[in-house]
Design goal:
Helix content is 41%, strand content 0%. It has 76 residues and is an all-alpha fold. The protein has a domain of 46 residues. Helix 1 crosses helix 2, helix 1 packs across helix 3 and helix 2 packs across helix 3. The chain starts with a helix and ends in a 36-residue tail after the last helix.
């Protein structure tokens, strides 16, 4: 797999940037850059928290989540 695919897959499992970086052995800044690129090209959607909306709601079951759902940002 490519770094892009690995980052998107790990994010889809619910891992945040720091966890993804640690799992893949790369810098967290690189992971954030890959996530930004994936969002720009439409592979991921920005979460409400990333857009400045802070209201948390319960997460849907794992198999019903969109690929980019990492859950509530306060749990990271």
């Amino acid at each position: 797999m490519s770094l892009l695919a690995d980052v998107v897959a790990a994010t889809g499992r619910g891992a945040g940037p720091a966890t993804v970086a640690r799992e893949l052995g790369v810098d967290v800044g690189l992971v954030e850059t890959v996530l930004d690129h994936a969002t720009r090209v439409g592979l991921l959607q920005a979460s409400s928290a990333a857009l400045g909306r802070t209201g948390c709601t319960p997460c849907p079951p794992r198999d019903a989540r969109p690929p980019a759902c990492t859950g509530c940002p306060l749990t990271r």
